[in-house]
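Sample entry (524 residues):
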Amino acid sequence: MSTRVQGTALEMVTIAQKSRQRVVRLYAVIAAVGAAILFVVVLSFETGIRLNTKYASQIEATFRIKEAVLSAHLWLEELASGDTYIDIKEIRTGLDRASALTTALLEGGAVGAPGRAIVAVDDRDARRKVEDVQKALTEFKDASEQRYAAGEEAGADSEVDDVYDQAAKDLSTRLDLLMWEFEQISAQELDSLYLLRLVVIGAVVAVFGAGAWMLHSYEQRSREDLESIQEHEQQLTVFRALIETAGDAICLADLSGNVVYANPAFYRMHGYKSGDVAVLDRQIASFIDPEDYRSKGLSQEQIVAKATSPDGFMGEWRHVRRDKSTFIGQDNAFTIRDENNQAIALGEIVRDVTIQKQTEIDRQRLQQETIEAQREAILELSSPIIPLMEGIIVMPLIGDIDTSRARDITRALLDGIGQYRAKVVILDITGVQVVDTGVANHLNKTVQAARLKGAQTILTGISDAVAETIVDLGIDWSKLATLRNLQAGLLAALRSLGMRIESGKTPTGAIDKNNKGKDRPAEG
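Predicted structure, serialized as tokens:
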């Protein structure tokens, strides 16, 4: 019963723990996914800002370089046409600004005020194209100076004009290639950003879907757990009712041996009122008579240690009631373990067996008395004293003779000699099948004891087998009067007492004690 209660209680605890674990896992998953979404969103914004900061400034710088080169080219064309309102210093300033922008694209930094900070190009192909633009820009600046120096003399077919046009064309081509490279790189980055944003949107949708599924699953499992807990609570109610009404004393203790619960039978059995606080928080071993466990070489700590061992312990202990009286309890102490086989409490069931023990003692005493009475009766039957006539007794022996029986035979024979004032004792061993050295010694001692009491002993009933055994063993019975059967022994006994039996006469008239064997007529 206690095992079922323990299993049901532990199962309820397990269900509650699993329910809490599911809640924790649910919140952990939601928190993890939320953190992942936040990370992706932050990464998306950071990527967008980085793209805006990096590639926008680089593309803007390229546009400014192209604008400066185009302005210089137009100014030079107008200057060659005779327009003198344009100052060459402005052209040189624009080209110098373009050179500074190419340097900024390679090294980074801010150019002009309030110019935006330019992030250095890190792509290897793009850097090579910036270097090509920088080289072409230098060539264009040199060609521009030569074109300016030639003035109106540099016609459309002049060498200076051809060099200038080629330098302008190369620079424009290099700028277009650089612009295209920046557009490709930024397009790839933007595609990655769009993909990242799609991942974010997908993750959000997945999170909401998973969250909804987990909430539904949690709600369903919680409903199942609630039903299971209610079922187990009903079982616990039944088990508690069984424990509360049980006739055996049942108690629970912590692993230190302190009582935390006791059923009414435990209180009643130990002489306390139900719910008495003197029982709780008390060592479980303190209810046992100290003299009892000390006599067994144990202490309270060792008793608790035995109870917490895997096998627990069972035994009979003398328990002490509140009024210091005692009773004999049959104890069963055991360890209560959880689903992980970890010890969590101690249990003990005590049954009062005082009446049973006393009944058993009385039964054993009565049985012993019966055995003794039967033994004495058997002894009398196995070693009977038969008085034949005055002065003659017969003791027939039957069965095996051991040391204990030999003593009884000697004692019975001596009592018979004294009781019947026997002068002759006939020991008939017809019923003794085996005679060995031990039996012979016992018979010799019996004969000697009878002789000390003044009685002559005649041994009769020696069979052929017994005679052969005596000869083979070398037993000396030469000093004993031995005859073949009881009849011969009786005649010898009569002769030893001066009596005889006459043929045709009754035993009463045939026996003559006074005439030394002379005939005497029978009376009557």
